[in-house]
Here is the input.
Amino acid sequence: MDFVIDSPSPVLAIVSIPLLIVKSPMHLVVDLVLVGSFLLFMTAFAGVGLASMLVKEDTTDDYLVAGRGMHPALAALSAVSTWNSGYMFIGFIGFTFTMGYSIVWIAIGSMIGQILAWLWLYKFIQQSANDRGLRSLSSLVSDATGSPEAKLAAMLSILFLSVYAAAQLTSGGKALYVMLGWSEVVGILIGFILVVAYCYAGGIRASIWTDAAQSSVMIVGSSLLCWVAMGEVGGFGGLHSGLEEQNANLTSIVPADLGFGLTLWAFAFFLGGLSVAGQPQVVSRVMTLGTDKDRKSAMLWFFAWQTPFLLIMVIIGLASRVVFSGADFDPELGLPMLAMETLGPFWVGLILASIFAATMSTADSQVLACTAAFTDDVMPEISQDHKKTKTVTLAVASFATAISIFGLYVPGGDSVFSLVVLAVYGLGSIFVPILIIRWAEYEPDTTHTMAMMIAALTGVIAWRLLGLNNEVFESIPGMGAAFITHLVMNRIRSPEISPLGRYDWPDDRKTRAIAAALIIPFGAVEATYAISGPDVADSVSGPSGDWIVEANFGSEQLADGFEYVNDGETISINMHTDSIEDAKDINIVGVRATLTYSEDETSNGIGCNVPGASNSDPDTITSTMVHNEKNMTESGQNSDGPPSSHSVEVEWYDSSMIGNVSNVSRSQITMGLDSGGIGLGAYALDISVTTGTGGAIGCTHTDDGEDVEYLVELITLEYSIEPA
Here is the structure.
């Protein structure tokens, strides 16, 4: 048992739990195998990265673009790992968990956008970068590095990429917390150390080499988990019926109640895929390729790995929704919890290493992309100073780490999916419109370019602040604002030039024809959706009815013991469900701590013979029981008589779903009574004592504290549901 004296917060006591908890020999062996497997794969990844030092050159060009001689397969596998990152393992899984079958829109839309980016924009980027010797995406927004527009693009890149890197560090922290019980802060700091080590060791070459190795492990680990998970839910038939039982809309290909309609909602995902061309950390991989032939080869490698990986992640996300049905379950923990639930410790270690390595691979790529933007465009005078370049790397990594830790204490700030969407669509909105018009050979000046970037930034931030991103992702307002600004600037400042560059702007007749060709089919789609699309009110799975729900509560002892607590002191007793065999198979719906204590106050002096002078004053014993964000505090007092006691209890089930239940579905009852693994993990019991001393003239009382006995039990629930 681990004790923390005078803990300032029960929550902090929880998140600081080490693995050194008293466990059974079997659980200790399981933990050792898991940690050993994790360290084995992480060491292998680190070894691959360090091996790159054997061929690196101590130049800034090699540090940032690997001398433009990277093999296409390595660059492509690195792009897969960098693009997917912890977002795919954590954020995308969470979104799939929430959306169900309608996730297909983001999968297909994003894939189409990525294909166009590789075929079209990446060709322009790769050729321009090679011809001009550029190392950063921000340099492509103008004809000269270090120009005002390039500086602005670089600063915006650093801002959004720091948020993006923070999301990766948060992903790694969440994975370590779920699988090893370590604090999220500890996981974030470990990630920071590894990112800096990768970057310092071999720059982008080390990043690409480790990314390629991690991509291989990612696909193997996720394939294994997908196979086991499908067996767990009963194949595709069981998957479908399990989703339908929870929520009928989960099995609908079309989502319910879209505030801006289906067309804009789906189109945003396409633009999100196209936004891959606006991601400096991915574009940097393209810049390491020497020829257009290398780009084409890398494209084939990319989609050969990306396509099955995306499909596997969709299946895992859906399966996790079936396995973890609790209403309070964090969707972004679906994959690591599923791995813990279904795989042996060695393979859990592999999955954990895959998640953590994926986050680090993306984070180090983003840090290096920020470094390139800063050294090439913000302060081009240090662009060839290798030592100062590495100092910039350290500063950027520190900034991202600070954002990640700060986000843990801000509501919604630790949502990996939300942070990634903001960063991806923000960067895409800033860069993609400018890249498109420059590809069309339109050459905007400084004012024109900066106006487009500011408009895109304003659109993205305003959309997020208004909360409209819950209806349509930020790519629509961001890119829309940029293109509208381009058309307005062109009309005002250079109407003699086509806004499409080398392509002619269509005349009024063609414009009307194009508009009609777009409006008519999309209008028909929206009309059909409005009339026959699913309604959120119909999301309850199955028919509502009347049910008899019988509940059987039980308990599992988590910890017990005696502690002497001094007056004014607080001790924290930390526990973990790993100490209970097969805890994952128990429906834990609460926790109860019972504290027992007697009075040990002493009196001394001749005046104690006076009636009542020797009577003791009661002491106050206060206990706080905490699990995750759930906590409860109770107090009690002792006396001179028999031992006194009090209990403190925390529960997380819906008691209204027990007994005779009417007008609800079976799945609603299940969601109210099944904890979905919420009860697993760390617990903390805080005990404090405030003594009271009696006494009178000539009668001295002494009471320095109390001996407190505690018993901590998990509240378990088994239930049955029968039609009334």
